[in-house]
Design brief:
By secondary structure, the chain is mainly alpha-helical. It contains five helices and no strands. The chain is elongated, with a radius of gyration of 26 Å. The model has no long low-confidence stretch (mean pLDDT about 75). Keywords: Membrane, Transmembrane, Transmembrane helix.
C-alpha cells in the first residue's frame, strides 16, 4: 500500500519525482526503490505534466465510455423485466415436487442475468490470463537482454 501511495504522490508532483530519481542519497534511493526498479531504462527522462494529464484524461474517458456502454446496453434493459418478473406471483408451479413452496421466478431471473455475469467474468479472467502470460514473456525477454 505504501509503494502505491508513493507512486501516486510522485505522479502528482513530477518535479519532486524528477529530483528524487536523479538524487544519489541512499535514503532517497531506498524510497525510490519502492516506486520503480533500479534498472529502469528511461530513468531521468520525463514526460511533461500536460502530456501526463492528457494520457490520464484519455484513459479516464475510455473507462467511462466502457462503463456507460455496459450500463446502458447490457444492464438497464434488464432492470424493468426483472422487476416485472419479481412481481409475478407463482400459484401453480409445474415442478412443485422438485421445488416446493416457490414464490418468485428466480430461475427466470438467473437465466436472464447469467449471460451478462458470465461475459463479465470471462472477459475479466481472460484479460488477466493474457496479461499474466504477456507480461511474464516481456519481463523474461528484458532480463535475458540484461544478462
Amino acid at each position: 500500500m505504501i509503494p502505491d501511495l508513493l507512486a501516486i504522490t510522485l505522479f502528482l508532483l513530477p518535479r519532486l519525482r524528477e529530483k528524487m530519481e536523479l538524487s544519489d542519497w541512499p535514503v532517497i534511493n531506498i524510497v525510490m526503490w519502492w516506486a520503480q526498479p533500479k534498472l529502469y531504462v528511461g530513468r531521468g527522462m520525463h514526460v511533461g505534466t500536460f502530456s501526463l494529464l492528457k494520457y490520464t484524461i484519455f484513459w479516464i474517458l475510455v473507462l467511462s465510455v466502457k462503463l456507460a456502454f455496459s450500463y446502458f446496453v447490457e444492464i438497464l434493459p434488464l432492470i424493468r423485466p426483472t422487476k416485472v418478473i419479481m412481481k409475478v406471483q407463482v400459484e401453480n408451479y409445474r415442478l412443485h415436487k422438485f421445488v416446493p413452496n416457490v414464490k418468485h421466478n428466480m430461475g427466470v431471473i438467473i437465466a436472464i442475468w447469467s449471460p451478462i455475469i458470465l461475459v463479465s467474468l470471462f472477459y475479466g479472467c481472460s484479460s488477466m490470463v493474457h496479461h499474466l502470460f504477456y507480461s511474464s514473456r516481456w519481463s523474461s525477454r528484458s532480463f535475458q537482454a540484461l544478462g
